[in-house]
Specification:
Number of strands: 17
Radius of gyration: 22 Å
Distance between the termini: 35 Å
Structural class: alpha/beta
Strand order of the largest sheet: 3-2-1-4-5-6-16-17
Number of helices: 13
Strand content: 15-25%
Helix content: 25-40%
Order of helices and strands: EHEHEHEHEHEHEEEHEHEHEHEEEHHEEH
Length: 379
């Protein structure tokens, strides 16, 4: 059985789906790994490192023609045309928002597994690529905020006097938010966290942060521990309460997301206008509309004296470690798909495989992806 690792550098991707240490582990399962030349270059991994681990370096066609193909981002139309009918594809595929790719994969007869669709159950934790990449993004977001602000993060006591520490508010206490809280605390800031899910208060406080209580009397924890969308009246009350609180902070990092939906609006234009001069907002939800009303995806803007940063993929800005974490997630899924003898074994009774599968046998089988693509519902 061959596993292909194509380069996606031409599409701007800096990460690579497998790393040499993971290649070496996969070789113990009688698997042949084909890596496109230069696939790891932007993650600082030379072709020679893959070869030393036991991979074979080849062309894009070699990698895309394998029985199993691993990618980071959704493949292009050209890449999909290079896949073999009946091949297995693993990667971030945006099944709830990228209907064209999902339809193309079904039309190509590809069995596609979306890393973001893996069920959030304890047995699948080692495959949770959303969390591994969110960890990188949360860390990077705080560094970006610290770089962009013209104040110290920690308290400094000097002969010239004492400098107060920066105050940081992190909105959303998922994986990215908790990592942002921990990183801001390490840098010496006074940190406050907020989430609509009351259950995460203890996690925020365990990291040494305060919990911002807006007294909304609403708990928005949905299936699998994800946040669910608040009702319209609750959203309005949340925005009003947030606008009053937000002016106290030097830095705001927003991470709130609802799977398959526009990011919830937490920071209104009025709230931004009430912030201190020199304040910074880093909006990790920029790609899905932004948690801040004024965010522009992929851009850094000034609104008055407030800097608003809307990064699109912060994890890709740290490709070496982001690739290392992602490759281990992919490895864990591969070990569920492939026997120790290197044979493909797709057990559709397994809730992980059934939940993560987007297309199979020429059809779209994931219910959310079906709705996004306008395909008929099952049954």
């Amino acid at each position: 059985m061959r596993i292909g690792v194509p380069s996606q550098a031409a599409a701007g991707e800096t990460r690579v789906a497998l790393t040499p240490d993971v290649v070496a582990r996969l070789k113990t399962r009688e698997l042949e790994v084909l890596v496109e030349s230069g696939a790891g270059e932007r993650s600082h991994i030379a072709d020679a490192a893959f070869e030393e681990a036991g991979a074979r370096i080849g062309t894009s066609g070699d990698a895309l023609g394998a029985e199993i193909v691993t990618v980071v981002r959704a493949p292009s139309a050209e890449e999909i045309s290079g896949l073999s009918r009946g091949a297995v594809l693993i990667g971030f595929l945006d099944p709830l928002t990228d209907a064209d790719t999902v339809r193309a994969l079904a039309g190509a007869g590809v069995t596609a597994f979306a890393m973001e669709a893996i069920p959030r159950i304890s047995r699948a934790q080692s495959m949770d690529a959303l969390s591994s990449q969110a960890t990188v993004a949360g860390y990077r977001a705080v560094l970006l905020a610290a770089e962009s602000q013209d104040r110290f993060f920690p308290m400094l006591t000097t002969a010239a006097g004492t400098i107060k520490p920066a105050t940081v508010l992190v909105l959303g206490a998922g994986v990215a938010g908790l990592q942002a809280i921990a990183t801001a605390r390490r840098l010496g800031a006074v940190v406050t966290g907020y989430d609509v899910r009351e259950a995460v208060r203890e996690q925020v406080e365990s990291l040494g942060a305060r919990f911002l209580d807006l007294r909304l009397e609403a708990d928005a924890e949905g299936a699998g521990g994800y946040a669910k969308e608040l009702a319209e009246e609750q959203q309005r009350r949340q925005q009003e309460a947030m606008a009053k609180a937000i002016g106290r902070f030097d830095v705001v990092v927003t991470t709130a997301a609802v799977p398959g939906r526009r990011a919830p609006l937490l920071v209104t234009a009025a709230a931004v206008e009430g912030m201190k001069p020199g304040s910074v907002i880093v909006d990790l939800a920029a790609a899905t509309g932004g948690n801040c009303e004024l965010t522009e995806a992929g851009r850094t803007i000034q609104h008055g004296d407030v800097t608003i940063i809307g990064p699109l993929d912060l994890a890709a800005e740290m490709p070496e470690h982001a690739s290392a974490l992602y490759a281990r997630n992919v490895q864990a899924l591969l070990e569920l798909l492939v026997s120790k003898e290197g044979e493909l074994e797709l057990n559709w009774e397994d809730e992980i495989l059934a939940g993560a599968c987007i297309t199979r046998d020429g059809e779209i089988v994931h219910e959310g992806a079906k709705q996004a693509a306008g395909a008929p519902a099952t049954g």
